[in-house]
Amino acid sequence: MPADRTKIFVSAYACEPGLGSEIGVGWHWVLEMSKHFELWVLTRESNRCTIEPWIAEHPEFSGIHFLYFDLPKWARFWKKGMRGVRTYYNIWQYCTNRIVKHTMRENGIKIFHHLTYGNVLWKVSSYGQKQFFVWGPVGGLETIPGEYSRHYSQKGRLIEWVRRMAIKMLPLNFGFKKRCKRADLILCKTEITRNLVPAKYRDKCVLFTDVAVDSTPYTSVTAKKEQDTIEFITVGRLDAWRGFDLVIESFAHAAAIDKRMHLTIVGKGSDKERLTGLVERLGLQKQVTFTGKVAMDEYYRLLANADVVVNASLKEGAVTVSFDSMAMGKPLICLDTTGYTRYFSNDYAIVIPRTSRKQVVEDIAAAMERMKSKEERKTIGDNARNAGAQFTWVARGEEFKELIKLKLRNGK
Asked: What pTM, to 2 d.p., does this model score?
């Protein structure tokens, strides 16, 4: 490893090989950053059992310095999966501050990068943010309009109300303003987030999505067999704001015209009961399948078997599958979130504006009907695969490297 490589301390709560979503995103970022910088990466102790065997099999990445921390089991018995994750995450950030401070001082590290779980309202190491502080990619300032959330369960409506109140109170949020002031570079997932950063700090902001195209897992996946069914797939945690209800209602309109259509919903979450009830009310039990959470190999198989990918998330979410659609050469139907969707043109996706709920359902249904054409699917899918070569993880790493070099040249 060259001695002159810039040293960076990375806080990556979610970082593990072989998984998708936030955890997989954190892992890809670390691998790409390690090609350009010398890294000290702090993550959860629970990730050690998968990270260390992977590194042993890939010695070219053995130069990454991993550090691990978790509270003892007796102090985190209340955390189960995503339940309690926000509380535990903020406790974890507080408890690991001493590790950040000791490691950065001992190794002469001047740059601190807060990477995963990039919600601008959540805690960041108090020592790390006093250094050369790279924050993000971050989001968390996007809200769901009431005309959408009124269809949610009581819990879902309450969550969205709390989120809207938190955004309204943003000018009084001292922690948020302090992080904006201290950050040297703020990577914003969406224009919405960038525009809510106080104007005097907005020149530090750069639009930068946290996901990229990874074609490696698909090289050994068997391509879809010819069949009469037109298979749509939508993937993600079953949270209300991810728009699965919009997909189901749109599918009901499109499928009423063409019974060959089938929808597969991949994921688990608190909104499943409401969604299954909606499927039953619309009489779609034979045309809609809920798989629950699946292993990555099964996810790849299901995606390979699909004709069209749908992501109706009302804000940044289920983004991994959107970029995976490029790798697989699948047409994508999605809502414009002002974030990752800027990478998708209508030559290789159908990007729908987030207007009224009624209009969005009609637009998704119209896009599904358009996808009945095999020729249309092939044209858009081929364009998507070709476009994906521009948005790889390697390209994302290079882009980040140039940003850091530029910032360091210009100083704090």
From this structure: 0.90
